[in-house]
Amino acid sequence: MIREYLISHIYSTAKNVLTMYKRSVTMKTILLLLSVILAPSLCEDATILIDVIYESLCPDSTRFISQQIPPMYEAIGQYVTVNFRPYGFATTTEVDGSFQFECQHGERECYGNLVQACTVAYTPEQDTVVGLITCMMSSPFPDQAGPTCFEQYGLDYQPILDCIESGEGAQLHADNGVTQNNEDPQPNNVPWINLGNQHLAEYWELEEYGLLQFICDTFDTYMGEACAEISMISK
């Protein structure tokens, strides 16, 4: 209760200050105050966990993943663990031991979600996962981009097809839904970004601030020299 009160109090106070003194206070101040109070945690390997909950055909998801993830990962990839979780505002129904889905942007999005869930499951190297997902999400047709993106990386796409056809992809997608529904707070927009197991900001705030800059400013204690140049530029 104390944590929730502090968050609410700081946010409302900062917003009031922002209204009164727009020239001297920006949204960045609000986000940094919240990030200090929430004190995000690290993974066991001391990397920062970035959960990306999204939909494969959501315009906000495609824009965020294609524009915010690549520069962040290029700069500090060795310090983060990116966990792509395609699902979003889908619903899952289990019928006779199999799963049926309804997705916000239709059947094509459901298929795209399955492709990307299988991609995450069958691609062991994080660098490759990030590359493949951002490749697909940068395409005009993310649900159809899998074969082309895998070819660009010299990888066999057949395991992904097998994953989907066997029903494993549906299980992975359903599991993403269960995990998402157990989030606290519950995602009410996508993409929904958690940093260090905490929801510190909405995606549009991270876009305005810059995902890379936000991570560097929030986790500066853990990042060492990784963000030194970036921090100097921002100052």
Widest β-sheet, arrangement of strands? 2-1-5
Q: How much helix, percentage-wise, in residues?
A: 55-70%
Individual helix count: 13
By secondary-structure content and strand pairing, the structural class works out as mainly alpha
How would you characterize the overall build of this protein?
It is a single chain. The chain has 13 helices and five strands. The chain has helices spanning 2-20, 27-38, 59-67, 69-76, 107-121, 126-137, 146-152, 158-165, 168-181, 203-209, 211-218, 220-223, 228-234; strands spanning 48-54, 80-86, 91-95, 98-102, 192-195. Strands 2-1-5 form a three-stranded mixed sheet. A two-stranded antiparallel ribbon has the order 3-4. It starts with a helix and ends with a helix. Mean pLDDT is 87; it is low at 1-13 and 17-24.
